[in-house]
Amino acid sequence: MEIKIMQNELLSLINISLRAISLKNNTSILEGILFIVKDNQLTLKSTDLELAIETSTECKVEKEGEVLLNASMISNIVRKLPNDEVYIKVDREKVFIQSENAKFNIIAMDIYSYPEFPTFENKVDFYIQENLLKVATKQTIFAAAIDDYRIVLNGVDVEIENKNVDFVALDGHRIAKRSFKIEEDIEKKVIIPPRALNEISKIVPEGSVVGVSLVKGSAIFTFENTIFSTRVIDGEYLNYKALFSYEHKTKVTVARRDLINAIERANIIYKAEKGDLVTFTIDDSSILVEGSSEIGDLKDIIDIKKEGDNLKIAFNSKYVLEGLKTIEQDFVEITFNGRAGACIIKPEDENIDYTYLVLPVLLQDSQY
C-alpha cells in the first residue's frame, strides 16, 4: 500500500473513525483502524462490535492494499504532522509515514485478526436533515435510563408512522419526546442506544442529509462518504402515550431563561447536600421558586401568564432543568394536573413538536 493525501483530509477521516473506538473495550484488536486503499480511494473502518464506521475520500494511489493501525497512535501522529501532503507506504508490517521533514516508522497491527464488517442492503427507509437529527438527539438522550434492569429503557425509542418520526426516552422520572415529519410513508420501530445517537451527532456535517436504514438488529446512518451503523436494543418499549393525555388544571407561560436562572439559584443552597428539591408556588401572575436546606434558603419570584388553578408543587430540580435547557425557544408552556400529577413542558411555539413530562415530588400535607 502506498498513498499520498493531505494532512487535514486524513485527520478528518481518522477523527470520524475514532467515534467507534471504545476506551472500555478489552480487546486490543478493536483499538485499530483498518486502512483500505482501492480504486483511488482511501477507506477507513473502525468498530467496537456495537458501533461500526466506514468513511472514505479520494487520494493519490501508488499501490493498493490494506493495513491495520493503532487508532491512538495514528491519530496522534497525523495530528502533529504539518498541514501538507502526507506520504504513507506499507511494506508488510512496517509502515513509513512522512510529511515535509517529519518521518515516522511504526509497526502495523495483525490485520488477519480484525473482525469482518457487517454488510447491509443499500436501502434507505427515510431521510432526515442533519439539524433535525441533532436536535432530536439532544432533546431525548439525556432522559434515557442508565443501567436499568429494563434494558429497553436504556435506549431511545424511534417510531415511524404516518410520515412522522418520534424520538422518545424515559427513565421512570421523566419522558422526553421529539417528533418531526418525513416524506417517506413507512411503519417501523427500533430502540437505539443513546451513545450511538450522540456519536453520530458529533460527526454529521452541517447542512447534510442523512439516510436512515432500519434493518434487523441494526440501524444504519449514511451521509456524504460515511456509513455509521449501530446495534439496536431488542425488546418492546413501554407504552407511554397515555401519560401525555390529561386535562390540565393549571397552565403557565413563562420565560424559559428566567425559570432556569431561578432554579439554578435554588441549587446553590444544595451544594453541601444531596437533596435538590425545588418548589413552585403558582398564583395569578407569578411563580414563587423556593429552595431550602440547613445552610440557607432561596425565594425568587418570576412573572408568568396563568390559566386555571393556583398550585404548590415540588420537583427534583435536576429533572426540570435538563428539560428546560434542551429547549431553544424563549418562552415555554407548562401544564400541571394537580400537586400529585405530572407536569408537561413544551415550547410556546406550536411548530416545535417537543414534549417533556416530569413527575413531581410529593410533600407532606403540612408543607402545602
From TrEMBL:
Record's GO cellular component terms: cytoplasm; DNA polymerase III complex
Domain DNA polymerase III beta sliding clamp central: 128-237
Subcellular localization, as worded in the UniProt entry: Cytoplasm
GO biological process entries: DNA strand elongation involved in DNA replication
A GO term for molecular function: DNA binding
Chain ranges of the DNA polymerase III beta sliding clamp C-terminal domain: 243-360
InterPro entries membership: DNA_clamp_sf (IPR046938), DNA_polIII_beta (IPR001001), DNA_polIII_beta_C (IPR022635), DNA_polIII_beta_cen (IPR022637), DNA_polIII_beta_N (IPR022634)
DNA polymerase III beta sliding clamp N-terminal domain span: 1-117
UniProt keyword Cytoplasm present: yes
Leader peptide range in chain numbering: none
Pfam families reported in the protein's UniProt record: DNA_pol3_beta, DNA_pol3_beta_2, DNA_pol3_beta_3
Keyword annotations of the record: Cytoplasm, DNA replication, DNA-binding, DNA-directed DNA polymerase, Nucleotidyltransferase, Transferase
Subunit comment: Forms a ring-shaped head-to-tail homodimer around DNA.
Purpose of the protein: Confers DNA tethering and processivity to DNA polymerases and other proteins. Acts as a clamp, forming a ring around DNA (a reaction catalyzed by the clamp-loading complex) which diffuses in an ATP-independent manner freely and bidirectionally along dsDNA. Initially characterized for its ability to contact the catalytic subunit of DNA polymerase III (Pol III), a complex, multichain enzyme responsible for most of the replicative synthesis in bacteria; Pol III exhibits 3'-5' exonuclease proofreading activity.
Family in the record: Belongs to the beta sliding clamp family.
Protein name: Beta sliding clamp
